[in-house]
Amino acid sequence: MERAYATTGQRLARLGLRLQTALVLLFLVAPIAAIVPLSFSAGSFLHYPLPGLSLRWYRDFFTSDFWLPTVWNSAVIGAAATALATILGTLAAIGLWRARFPGRGLVFGLVMFPMMAPVVIVAVAVYFAYAQVGLANTYLGIILAHTALGAPFVVVTVYATLSGFDSALARAAASLGASPITVFRRVTLPLILPGVVAGALFALVTSLDEVVVVLFMAAPEQRTLPRQMFAGINDNLSLTITAAATLLVVLAVALMLTVAWLRRRGERLRGG
Amino acid sequence: MTAADGAAGGIAAPARADLRRQLGRSRRRERRQAALLVAPLVLFLFATFLAPIAAMLWRGVSDEEVSRILPRVTAALAGWDGRALPPEAAFAALIEDMRAARDAGTLASAGTRLNYDINGFRTLVFATARRLPAEQPADARTALIAIDAKWGDVETWGAIRRAAGPATDFYLLAALDLKRNAAGDVVAAPANEAVFVNLLLRTLGISALVTLVCLLLGYPVAYYLSSLPARTANLLMVLVLLPFWTSLLVRLAAWVVMLQRDGIVNNLLLRLDLVSSPLSLLYSRFAVVVAMVHVLLPFMVLPLMSVMKGIPGAHLRAAASLGAPPRTVFRRIYLPQTLPGIAAGTLLVFIQALGYYITPALVGGGDDQMIGSFIAFYATRTINWGMAAALSFMLLGATVLLYFIYSRLVGFERLRLG
Fold first, then answer.
1. Taking the model in full, what pTM does it have?
2. Is there a contact between B42 and A108 if contact means CB atoms under 8 Å apart?
3. Domain of B71?
4. Does residue B171 lie in a domain region?
5. Is the distance from CB of B218 to CB of A20 less than 8 angstroms?
6. How far is A149 from B163, CA to CA, in rounded Å?
7. Which domains does chain A have, with CATH numbers?
8. How many structural domains does chain B have?
9. What whole-number distance in Å separates Cα of residue A88 and Cα of residue A95?
10. Chain B partners within 8 Å of A116 (Cβ)
11. Do B368 and B273 share a structural domain?
């Protein structure tokens, strides 16, 4: 309808806008898209054209003592930090949503601050403090720091879900005699669960992507996948890194689609 | 309250007071429960996050080493005005202190601290300690100046007094290329030590440039995507969000592949005959800005889009129907309504850009390192915690200030990404 009345100038402007958008989207996606095919190269150079296709770099990745332990470390640290951040963050989000207690604004700002704090300061500070209580170069130390960095994502995601939650449902359950714990378990939690899971995935990706804290805190046996990639890029970019990168891109796509699906599901559950 | 009063109008006064009391009690209980739910996270963050940061910042102003290791001389210098050489008692105290510290093996850390102030002080301390007379000399001043003429310089003594603690502004001043002279006046640091103002300006400059590029690239994209039907927009949003979800290290590896000498960009430029020999794009300011824009662009597009989606098209059509040319409609009607999105996106990108460390480290050259790199450098390479803390203080101060502005303009609950 709009098109029919558009002048030539407006059409040109629209075309220009479309072109601009296409170029920016290309800029965003092209580098990531460019690194994926390299990981299937039969040769050992980092440029195109590929001499042939093979899975040798994936074989290299999955059989090497350099890479494989880091996958395990990333998984352990990520899982533990995510679990902690999800529990603490969900409780905090419910508290922040529930009542305007005194100092609420300050508390909100405080629990969200790790998201904005420069990670290098966090890493230096945490390393120095944890070293004094014997937590430097330990899994626990890294997990605690990653929990702090991931918790704000849980808080903000769950809080957003709660603000669409109809608290009359909880009151109805309570008036019918359900205890507060039953209300939470049977009414509130199922309705905000998509938000909780999405928040947990944000926390997980924060931990899996974090490299600065690990750079300071981890002994060689605690190195995570991004830490090893940092070493690899800094030192000598090999094609095994492109295989690792491709696996991480696949993971990113899976997580992103899951969160998008959860968001739609959450909206449907709330009748939104 | 007025609604409650009105509803309770028909109830007898004692019952009404009782009801109000009950309501107040239940509100208080609700507030208490809410605070209890938030408490675990707050306590956790205090212990694992805030206390460590506070402890580190404290190191930027605390200065206790020298007064612990050289207690007599720091006490003797307490009343000294710093204009002429200190009294004989200070010289005698220094000899005693140095002898004690040499025997206790603590001289090195005092020397390191004093060396931050005057380059070569560590050597001076050790050389002097080696040649100390066995007996306490009658004229300590002459004896010390005979060992090294630097003990006859007011500034040498000024450095000891400045390090006497318990608190110091030495590191904070140093982070601004300033220092105090022996008399205690703030003066410019010598040119070979004055690197920090330049570093702060470079950090601000790179962050501002990245933010500007993000705004210029992000605004049209956000506008176009917000004008599309939801289905198409969601599909294209995947392309904006994919980099956001992809690991930073993957993206940096990708930019190394793109920008290296025989990389994709150079190949393209050569094939198009735009250049005759490959450009060195990597390890440059250009690479840092490109990679940072790539990482931070989604943080600009998302807040812009959420604001743009809420702008009613009727306003624009009304302005156009009243005869405003498209440019005027944009400038007078559309742009002002997107200002909250511009503010949110700009602050979000700029705050994060200030603290960047990994990106300049991997794709930048020596002259492209930002304040984060220097914090890491002082904390790990030279173990100068005071300097690391002072630079952190600058960076964190800027971050907290901008974060506060963000919270006023946008609100914490809108700090939602992805």
1. 0.89
2. no
3. 65-165
4. no
5. no
6. 36
7. 65-269 (1.10.3720.10)
8. 3
9. 11
10. 351-352, 399, 403, 406, 415
11. yes
